[in-house]
Design brief:
Blueprint lengths: L1 E2 L4 E2 L2 E2 L7 E7 L4 E4 L2 E3 L7 E7 L4 E5 L2 E6 L7 E7 L10 E5 L2 E6 L4 E7 L3 E8 L2 E6 L10 E6 L3 E8 L4 E5 L3 E6 L3 E6 L2 E4 L5 E5 L16 E7 L4 E3 L1 E4 L15 E7 L2 E2 L3 E3 L4 E5 L2 E2 L3 E3 L6 E6 L4 E2 L3 E3 L4 E6 L2 E4 L2 E5 L1 E4 L3 E4 L4 E4 L3 E3 L3 E4 L4 E4 L3 E3 L5 E4 L2 E3 L3 E3 L5 E4 L2 E6 L11 E6 L9 E5 L2 E6 L5 E6 L6 E5 L2 E6 L9 E6 L5 E6 L4 E5 L4 E4 L4 E6 L2 E3 L7 E2 L1
Parallel strand pairs: 1-5, 2-6, 4-7, 5-8, 6-9, 7-10, 8-11, 9-12, 10-13, 11-14, 12-15, 13-16, 14-17, 15-18, 16-19, 17-20, 18-21, 19-22, 20-23, 21-24, 22-25, 23-26, 24-27, 25-28, 26-29, 27-30, 28-31, 29-32, 30-33, 31-34, 32-35, 34-37, 35-38, 36-39, 37-40, 38-41, 39-42, 40-43, 41-44, 42-45, ...
Antiparallel strand pairs: 3-4
Length: 562
């Protein structure tokens, strides 16, 4: 069927009852509708209005014209669908396709539902390709807060909905509680190179969710729910993205299923990106203007990867109930707060934590490759270890690390200290391996580590108040070669209240160290204070000390013992 340019199609009644419906075009299975004209409804018609009803399997709509439906003010239940397909009970549609290069517009002036394109019941695959405009508006005259108004929507009985919004394509929503793209399709895929926009502040551009507990039908048939959004370099999503387990617009009902989510953003997202309790993956090399948040539960696995060009305007937060990982690659600056995360890993490239930013980790902070700089004015709270593991990896400390040793845990690893690394052995603690205090530690329980390096231009200081071991820099087990270059201060202090005799030294080495070189440059200071302390001590098989600065032992004690 073809609607020619300049032609206008008005609706006819297609169902009776208390609220009869009207449809402009209704086709059966295998049909093709080409609209280059105008499909509209009469002004003031307070009835359900359906522009194009693809009422059969393998049906297609190609729209290059205009489909425009308006519901009048004062109506309570009127539904507007620009184009839709919904299989009857007992049937299953394999595929429905809508290609839009024109305009599909719905305006709800009352309190009913309005959907530009709707994928309904019992649909295996619904594909939308848009190069034109799909818009949905809830007018100020409407007062309902839960009746749906969306540019694109899908029922939970849709197995897969694919929305391809090409460069130049626009999918928009305007008004309170509206969405540009909405839905409960089991698998909802959005590929955006154009604009997906909600023009009303605080409203969602994209909102998808799983089936809420208590619904009939599919509530008894568990299945996986997922949303995949790929926003290319030209893509703009203006508004929030909410990939939840339930529709928070309609109330906080219990959830019996979880929706997983994947967001790959190389373009621009102006709002927040929020996930529910399902597993989520975020890869960002573009701009996200708001925060990224996860309502993680026990067993949830969430992963955030930030690459070159990444910008996050808000915080990255989780509840800390699942496993939440943050990976950095390429180059960038990490701003805002990271909370509720298990680990942070520098995988390659060069990243800096920005001034005023905070990273709170229950597990490890790891440099597996590249360079991570803990920027001045940033704060890290690490429940696990701070470690450099990858060959060529470097951790640069430009802030203050307190009571958290930096572990050099691989060959060709480096720590550069421009700030302050301090450790304190508390009074009353036991002298065990678990309680030893280090500023920087190189240690291997397996193969030898070689070319391990410490460059200090700031302060590395340890203080022993108890009876334990405290070392500013320690070359431990199975180190083939290690170097320390100092232009700052490396110090070890045994407090007057300390009664122990265990090793307290600014620099120390184990007998499993094949080669240790200490270069103390002009202006550098390596010092020890307190009874039985040493500035440099150790059992390295080859121990080289080149001094152009100051190496100072305690009063009446020893500066160097090797």
């Amino acid at each position: 069927m073809t609607v020619a340019p300049g032609a206008t199609v008005t609706p006819v009644q297609t169902s009776g009852g208390a609220n009869p419906s009207f449809t402009n075009i209704r086709v059966v299975g295998g049909s093709l509708v080409n609209n280059a004209g105008t499909i509209t409804n009469p002004a003031g018609q307070a009835r359900d209005n359906f522009g194009v009803n693809l009422a059969g399997d393998l049906s297609t709509l190609n729209n290059t014209g205009t489909i425009s439906l308006v519901a009048p003010a004062g109506n309570a239940t009127t539904r507007l669908y620009g184009a839709y397909s919904s299989a009857p009970n007992g049937a299953q549609y394999a595929s429905t396709t809508v290609t839009n290069g024109g305009t599909i517009s719905v305006v709800q002036n009352g309190n009913g539902i309005a959907r530009g394109i709707y994928s309904g019941e019992n649909t295996t695959l619904f594909t939308i390709t848009n190069t034109g405009l799909i818009s949905a508006t809830r007018a100020p005259t409407a007062t309902a807060t839960t009746a749906l108004v969306a540019g694109v929507d899908s029922d939970d009985d849709t197995d897969r909905l694919v929305v391809n919004n090409a460069a130049g394509g626009r999918i928009t929503a305007t008004g309170v509680n509206t969405r540009a793209i909405n839905g409960r399709a089991a698998d909802l895929v959005i590929n955006n190179s154009g604009t997906i926009q909600n023009t009303t502040a605080g409203e969602a551009a994209i909102a998808t969710y799983a089936l809420n507990a208590g619904n009939a039908g599919d509530a008894t048939t568990p299945r996986a729910y997922s949303t995949t959004l790929t926003n290319t370099a030209t893509g703009v999503v203006s508004g929030d993205i909410r990939l939840f387990d339930q529709d928070l617009q309609t109330g906080a009902t219990l959830v019996n299923l979880r929706r997983s989510g994947t967001v790959a953003n190389a373009g621009t997202i102006t709002g927040t990106v929020a996930f529910g309790g399902g597993n989520a993956v975020v890869t960002n090399t573009g701009r996200i203007g708001g925060s990224i948040s996860f309502l993680d539960v026990a067993g949830t696995v969430n992963a955030v990867s930030l690459g070159t060009g990444s910008s996050i305007g808000g915080n990255i937060t989780a509840r800390g109930l699942g496993t939440n990982t943050l990976t950095l690659s390429g180059t960038g600056t990490l701003m805002g707060a990271v909370t509720g995360f298990t680990s942070l890993t520098q995988a390659g490239g060069a990243w800096t934590t920005g001034a005023g930013s905070t990273q709170a980790l229950s597990g490890n902070l790891t440099v597996a490759g590249g360079t991570l700089t803990l920027g001045a004015g940033s704060t890290q709270t690490v429940g696990g270890v701070v470690q450099v593991t990858g060959s060529g990896g470097q951790l640069t400390v430009a802030n203050t690390l307190t009571n958290k040793a930096v572990n050099l845990s691989g060959s060709n690893t480096t720590v550069v200290n421009l700030g302050t690394i301090t450790g304190t052995g508390a009074a009353g603690r036991t002298n065990t391996a678990a309680n030893r205090v280090y500023g920087v530690l190189a240690n291997s329980t397996g193969a030898d580590f070689s070319n391990v390096a410490v460059v200090n231009q700031g302060t590395i200081a340890v203080t022993e108040n108890g009876i334990g071991v405290s070392r500013g820099i320690y070359a431990g087990e199975n180190i083939a070669s290690m170097s320390v270059v100092n232009a700052g201060t490396i110090s070890a202090t045994r407090a007057s209240t300390s009664t122990g005799t265990a090793a307290v030294a600014a620099i120390d080495s184990d007998d499993d160290v094949a080669s240790l070189t200490v270069t103390n440059q002009a202006g550098g200071r390596i010092s020890a204070t307190g009874t039985g302390t040493r500035a440099i001590q150790g059992r390295a098989q080859s121990f080289t000390i080149a001094n152009a600065g100051t190496i100072a032992g305690p009063a009446g004690g020893q500066a160097i013992v090797v």
